[in-house]
Amino acid sequence: MEFTLPLERYKEHNMVLHGWTDLTVWRGCPRIAET
User: Fold this and answer.
1) Element (H, E) at 4
2) Per its UniProt entry, which superkingdom is the organism in (predicted)?
């Protein structure tokens, strides 16, 4: 079973997802990508 994040459902909200950095962090920012 594959799980995908329902990001479209929460596009109007601020959402904090702990432990899913690889799926949620935009890798275009070098400062964030280095962590």
Assistant:
1) none
2) Eukaryota
pLDDT in tens, 12-22: 887 776 777 77
pTM, rounded to two decimals: 0.29
Residues 20-33 have pLDDT tens digits of 777 666 666 555 54
CB contact burial 3-35 (16+ within 10 A = b; e otherwise): eeeeeeeeeeeeeeeeeeeeeeeeeeeeeeeee
Range of the domain at 29: 1-35
What is the number of domains present in the chain? 1
- Distance from C-alpha of 25 to C-alpha of 33, rounded to nearest angstrom: 8
